[in-house]
Amino acid sequence: MFMAYFSLSGCDDAGSDANSSDASDHLVVYCAHDSIYSEEILNRFTKETGIDIDIRFDTEATKSLGLVQSIIAEAEHPRCDVFWNNEILGTLDLAERGLLHAYQSPNADRIPAKFKSTDSTWTGFGGRLRLYIINTNKMEASPESVEEALTGDLSQMAVAKPLYGTTLTQYALMWSEMGGDAVKEWYQQRTKQGWKIVQGNAVVKNLVASGVCEFGWTDTDDYFLAVDDKQPVAMLPIRTEGGQTICIPNTVAIVKGTEQESASQQLVDFLLSPEIELALANSRSRQVPLGTVDETKLPEQVKQLQEWAAEGVPLEGLLKARNECLDWLKEEFLQ
């Protein structure tokens, strides 16, 4: 599979900083967050510390799974020092396999417990929310309208194929709460109602924003791209059976076996800082700070999302449900 590599070189005067590392420091970072947002942040780290970074991005086709599979395949001879994942399930998989190195960052103290591991192998930051995107020219953006629409013909509803990404996380949560048999029955019923299963969340956003579909499931980052394009869309949070929202954080972890432990810790501290959460919040993706930040520097749209993120269901215990659900989904979509 194709993976893109980018190298970020430090500035000549960065080594004069009191916190700078030795010039021999060099990190390999596997990054699943979109390069248009993450590359600038990693470049900023290099400028501030003098630590060079080689970045390996994922692809839209493989999502973060390609990077997770690479870390697993390279376990005997790790190439990756730090894994910046844009979701959590793959990170849980790596932690379960013993492939992550525990590190308690001082900046992790500002992150709520439900967004970090109990054994310090990973920490979440900058979350996205699962939501309904609604074309306001086609239907009213209210919970009642959505509930009514879900009872009838769903040919005007679009959802992403749930084999990867945040849609898989949503399915895994349903599997955990409802049980496998109930999820299969629910899925068959939705399929009979005619919902459109498409390649990804961005496609869902495009179909709803253009009016081809009335509503669908997507993430906040895709939703705000439609908002910025001045499309007639509104959002409502998707809620679990227990009434909680689904807030999916970025996660950062040090890969077990790294030979750059000190530099890796510096990058983890950097990514978990309030400044980086604010940078993600002010990007086009509007990612939600999970820890405390200066509220005056947050966009108004993100302040609304903070309330929903605070209601997010804990995700750390999802791995078993994810594995069982994914086995079934592969039977549905890959055979």
Tell me what you see in this structure.
Helices cover 39% and strands 19% of the residues. Helix 1 links the parallel strand 2 (26-31) and strand 3 (52-57). It has 2 domains: 4-127 and 247-312, 3-Layer(aba) Sandwich (D-Maltodextrin-Binding Protein, domain 2); 128-245 and 319-333, Periplasmic binding protein-like II (D-Maltodextrin-Binding Protein, domain 2, 3-Layer(aba) Sandwich), CATH 3.40.190.10. Helix 2 runs parallel beside helix 3. It has 335 residues and is α/β, with parallel strands linked by helices. Strands 1, 2, 3, 4, 5, 6, 7, 8, 9, 10 and 11 form an 11-stranded mixed beta sheet that branches. Residues 1-23 have low confidence and may be disordered.
Topology, please?
Layout: E1 4-8, E2 26-31, H1 35-49, E3 52-57, H2 65-73, E4 82-85, H3 89-96, E5 100-101, E6 123-135, H4 143-149, E7 157-160, H5 165-178, H6 180-193, E8 196-198, H7 201-209, E9 215-219, H8 220-228, E10 233-237, E11 247-255, H9 261-271, H10 274-281, H11 300-310, H12 319-333
Parallel strand pairs: 2-3, 2-4, 7-8, 7-9
Antiparallel strand pairs: 1-3, 4-11, 5-11, 6-9, 6-10, 6-11
Helix pairs in contact: 2-3, 5-6, 5-12
- Overall body shape: globular
Uncertain segments are: 1-23
**CATH topology value of the largest domain:** D-Maltodextrin-Binding Protein, domain 2
| Average residue pLDDT | 91
Total strand segments: 11
Q: Biggest sheet, in brief? A: 11 strands, mixed
The level of helicity is 25-40%
CATH architecture of the largest domain: 3-Layer(aba) Sandwich
Structural class, judged by helices and strands? alpha/beta
CATH superfamily of the largest domain: Periplasmic binding protein-like II
One letter per element, helices H and strands E, the order comes to: EEHEHEHEEHEHHEHEHEEHHHH
Q: Which percent range describes the beta-strand content?
A: 15-25%
What count of domains describes the coordinates?
A: 2
Report the radius of gyration as a whole number of Å: 20 Å
Number of discrete helical segments:
12
* Name of the level-1 CATH class of the largest domain: Alpha Beta
Q: Roughly how many Å apart are the termini?
A: 20 Å
Protein name: Putative binding protein component of ABC iron transporter
Organism: Polystyrenella longa
InterPro entries: Ferric-bd, SBP
Keywords: Signal
